[in-house]
Amino acid sequence: MADRQPRGPTGIPVFGSSLDFAADPLGFMEECAREYGDFARIDTLNREVYLLTDPEGIEYVLTENYGNYRKPDLDGEGLDGLLGDGLLTSEGDLWRSQRKRIQPAFFREQLDRYAETMVGDARELAETWSVGDRIEGDSAMSQLTLRIIVETVLGAELGGMEREISEALIDVSGRFRSDDVRSLVPADVPTPRNVKYRRGERRLERVVRDIVRQHERGERTEDGGDMLSLLLRARDAGAVEIDDEQIRDEVLTMLLAGHDTTALTLTYSWYLLSENQEARRRFHAELDAVVGDSDPTVEDVQRLDYTERVVKEAMRLYPPAYTIYREANADDSVTGFHLPEGAIVSMPQWVVHRDPRWWDDPDGFRPERWSDEARDDASRPDYAYYPFGGGPRRCIGEEFATREAKFVLATIGRRFELEYAGRDEPELIPMVTLHPEPPVEFDVKAR
Predict the structure, then answer these.
(1) Tens digits of per-residue pLDDT, 326-340?
(2) What phi, psi does 371 have (nearest 5°)?
(3) Which of 179, 205, 155 is nearest to 27 (CA)?
(4) Structural Rg of the chain based on CA atoms
(5) Phi, psi of 357 (to 5 degrees)
(6) CATH number for 297
(7) Is the dihedral of CA 201, 204, 208, 213 positive or negative?
């Protein structure tokens, strides 16, 4: 029997549904899933997109038949134009060799070495705050995680440039806003947004060169197990695929992808804890019982079960990577529907993570749903929750990010409570990741 043809919104001539998507990307995806089911066809300005919200179909694309799918370039330049052949965007043999080469920087024993830096940087940030201060939480978490990723995985120092670099990353990410059709304008057209993008790109290029020079001048003092040390040793040993351009791509990829998702997870965790008094009480009670009056250790973090549930639940409700895209190399059949060669598959965590078929009280913040007693793995498909992606391309930094989030929450949370200063839920702007706008402000409160 022939595969079915999926249904979807009609849209308008030429633009298809591009304008509807840009008006409200998250709402549009939710509406399409409700109206047309788990496999919906969406015409856009220049591509044919299929919205896939069935966990088994997502597992098929990301895991079972992953070889038929590649990372797409959605706007003619996209992240490929910024990150080149870094781990996030590369394909085939280059991706496999680079992932294998970089992997030791994320081994458990290496993560244990990063712990002191994670805690120390979080402590230094907390020591700049006083009770009664009002802080921009998303900006503070972005600068903190940026500093951590550079000092650990890249084995370098930022020299106090965290805010400048964080702002440059915002300028760059703004180029990829999904809620504005101006993002479809080619990057070479000097619109105000593209001018900011190019300016941010140049600033980041300078940062990358400085980070690499720190290694080449012998200024770093780490153990040599960080990602950049591994790459530079491979380059100096004559590895044909590792040249200065490839190193630039990997460092820039880690700058962008290695801090942003964790910063957002922390921002949304603080917000959700602030808005849910019982969860906040249990969070602080666990810190008192496990960490006490000292900063958390590796052994402590392994025992912070409720804190980890807070992190998981924050990533369920506010997945920093709100959708995953793949492009079909050849015709395929997905959940009984025909998928043509060259089509784009969008697999939105934002929709699947809030699907009432898989989650009781899907819009509620319930960290306890992740306890061994409450979780019913038999009734919930594996890919009903995939904040780090899945399959061979599952995020290489998953454990790094989870540990970092727990260390930061514990280090700051044992000192202060953060009270959300806004009146409404933060507005969410889909860019490369799901950013709040305007800034999420918190009042620093005494424990």
Answers:
(1) 999 999 999 999 999
(2) -70, 155
(3) 179
(4) 22
(5) -65, -30
(6) 1.10.630.10
(7) positive
Residue 409 belongs to some domain of the structure: yes
Distance of CA 285 to the CA centre of its chain: 29
The CA-based angle 195-199-202, given to 5 degrees, is 140
Residue 11 lies in a domain: no
Strands (E), 123-179: 134-136
What does residue 189 show for φ and ψ, rounded to 5 degrees? -80, 125
End-to-end CA distance of the chain: 64
Instruction: Specify whether the CB–CB gap between 379 and 359 falls below 8 A.
Output: no
Mean pLDDT per 10-residue run, the chain (447 residues)? 83 83 92 97 87 98 97 64 86 94 96 97 98 97 96 91 81 70 62 80 89 84 82 90 92 90 97 98 98 96 97 98 96 96 97 96 96 70 97 96 98 98 93 90 97
Which pTM value belongs to this model?
A: 0.93
List of residues 6+ apart from 425 with CB closer than 8 A? none
What's the CA gap between 266 and 295, in Å, rounded? 18
Tokens representing residue 419 in the block:
């009270």
Domain that residue 393 falls in: 18-446
13 part of a folded domain:
no
The encoded tokens of residue 24 equal 């409200």
The model's pLDDT over 265-298, given as tens digits with 9 standing for 90+, comes to: 999 999 999 999 999 999 999 999 999 999 999 9
Q: Total domain count for the chain?
A: 1
Q: Could you tell me if residue 3 is inside a domain?
A: no
Going by C-alpha positions, the residue among 301, 263, 332, 247 that lies closest to residue 410 is 301
For 31, the enclosing helix (H) or strand (E) is helix 25-36
**Segment 236-255, tens digit of pLDDT:** 998 888 999 999 999 999 98
Each residue of 358-399: pLDDT tens digit? Answer: 999 999 999 999 987 666 556 799 999 999 999 999 999 999
Please tell me whether residue 436 adopts helix, strand or coil conformation: strand
